[in-house]
Design a protein that fits this description.
By secondary structure, this protein is mainly α. 50% of the residues lie in helices and 6% in strands. The chain contains 18 helices and 6 strands. The chain has a 3-stranded antiparallel beta sheet with strand order 1-2-3. Strands 4-5-6 form a 3-stranded antiparallel beta sheet. α6 runs antiparallel to α11 and α11 packs across α18. The protein starts with a strand and ends in a 27-residue tail after the last helix. The chain binds carboxymethyl coenzyme *A. The site of carboxymethyl coenzyme *A has 20 residues, from α17. Carboxymethyl coenzyme *A binds next to α17.
């Protein structure tokens, strides 16, 4: 609790309601309005949660003004430089960096859970050949709750831990099955001798008719992208997972809800939308036309990969990915640089434009990630699936934090009702 307090004053009769303030470790304090309805008969109104903390959390911190992102206190740029995705997953789930033995045992557990039930695999035959992979992913992840009854007691810490390992291990396998289905190729089983990202590449790109050599540059690039996407505090999909999970539903259903939320173009679907946009723009001379469209309030077109609810400065993840783009494209010898050149030019033009300056609109994590995925031969429709694989770690960490909280309550927002007042039913003949 803070020493600070606010009073809510009714300007009509002068009644004062004292509101406590709570301080976090970092970032703005919050006004605790929990007693407001009981004491003043008032709700608060904040569509889109622009100024509302929906929960208390110890996992991730963002300073949107300074462009800072910390996982359990560690700056994401340090983790990107020195850590690995599975080490970051351990950090997010358990709160501290693992020791050597802890990391090894975590890695072994994730590796040993990569197989999926054969019946689950058969679900894919039911999907149309051109089904979007995100549709398959949310459907199949939701249906995992029909397979793991043995470990779905959400009040059992051991069950929750097994769920966490299972879902993190199986997401790449399910994603690869969705990819193979869309390509009309046979499913490739996971290989436990491979690390997390090499195994993913193997399941995506190996075919029975020839040997597939894993390019370590590609595996490292994926690992880095996954670190950067692993968590981002109370974003739309994470809040969805928390809200769905707050009812006590099984965690697979809660994660499936998160996947559905991530798919939207304002959220994780933006990486696919950025590539579509760059391809539509086509060449640098057309950029001004699209920038003008993005600025026109009468036009629904937005610069995809630009702007963020929290960052009013450079998204630190976008900075890292932009640098990485040059390196990865050069190392892979991939001829995709015209797209990167176009993206860089678009960024330059937008960042000099008064409209974007005034509104603090900077490139976000999705602006450059698609260019790397594309260089790794991952098709556009799979971009958001890749994001989902990484973000599953964050979703699980938040779900765990919420379920383990003894003060857990079902999430149940209020509303400002503006519909019709009470009225009596009119029989059909009298209408
Ligand atoms: N292009 C053009 N104008 C924009 C853009 C954009 N990308 N983003 C925001 N604006 C304008 C918006 O029109 C508004 O202008 P005005 O004040 O004149 O009405 C102002 O900036 C504030 O925008 P907002 O929509 O109120 O801001 P928000 O915090 O509600 O939305 C956002 C944040 C990310 C949804 C939005 O910036 C956006 O739609 N960006 C494009 C989609 C995108 O890249 N999403 C990925 C986000 S990062 C990864 C993730 O979350 O998964």
């Amino acid at each position: 609790m803070s020493t600070k307090r606010y009073d809510l004053v009714d300007s009509g009769n002068g009644t004062r309601i004292p509101l406590d303030v709570r301080d976090g470790t970092l970032g703005p304090s919050v006004v605790d309005i929990g007693r407001l309805y009981a004491e003043a008969g008032l709700f608060t109104y904040d569509p889109g949660f622009k100024a509302t903390a929906s929960c208390e959390s110890r996992i991730t911190y963002i300073d949107g003004e300074k462009g800072i992102l910390l996982y359990r206190g560690y700056p994401v740029d340090q983790l990107a430089e020195h850590s690995s995705f599975l080490e970051v997953a351990f950090l997010l789930l358990y709160g501290d960096l693992p020791g050597r033995d802890q990391l090894e045992s975590f890695r072994r557990s994730i590796t040993m859970h990569t197989m999926i039930n054969e019946s689950l695999l058969r679900f894919f035959n039911g999907f149309h050949f051109n089904a979007h992979p995100m549709a398959m992913l949310s459907g199949v992840v939701g249906s995992m709750s029909a397979f793991y009854h043995d470990t779905m007691d959400i009040n059992n810490a051991r069950h929750r831990d097994i769920f966490a390992h299972r879902i993190i291990a199986k997401l790449p396998t399910i994603a690869a099955a969705a990819y193979k289905h869309s390509m009309g190729q046979p499913f490739v089983y996971p290989q436990n001798r491979l690390d997390y990202c090499s195994n993913l590449l193997h399941m995506f790109f190996a075919v029975p008719s020839q040997t597939y050599e894993i390019d370590p540059v590609a595996a490292n690039a994926l690992d880095l992208l996954f670190i950067l996407h692993a968590d981002h505090e109370q974003n739309a999909s994470t809040s969805t997972v928390r809200l769905a999970g707050s009812s006590g539903t099984n965690p697979y259903s809660a994660i499936a809800a998160g996947i559905s939320s991530l798919w939207g173009p304002a959220h994780g679907g933006a990486n696919e939308a950025v590539l579509n946009m760059l391809e539509t723009i086509g060449s640098a001379d057309k950029i001004p036309k699209y920038v003008e469209r993005a600025k026109d309030p009468g036009d629904k077109f937005r610069l995809m990969g630009f702007g963020h609810r929290v960052y009013k400065n450079f998204d630190p993840r976008a900075k890292i990915i932009r640098e990485m783009c040059h390196k990865v494209l050069a190392e892979l010898g991939n001829n995709d640089s015209p797209l990167l050149e176009l993206a860089l030019r678009l960024e330059e033009i937008a960042l000099e434009d008064e409209y974007f300056i005034e509104r603090n609109l900077y490139p976000n994590v999705d602006f450059y990630s698609g260019i790397i995925y594309r260089a790794l031969d991952i098709p556009k429709s799979m971009f958001t699936v890749m994001f989902a694989i990484a973000r599953t770690v964050g979703w699980v960490a938040h779900w765990q934090e919420m379920i383990a909280d003894p003060a857990r309550k079902i999430g149940r927002p209020r509303q400002l009702y503006t519909g019709p007042d009470r009225r009596d039913y009119v029989p059909l003949d009298n209408r």
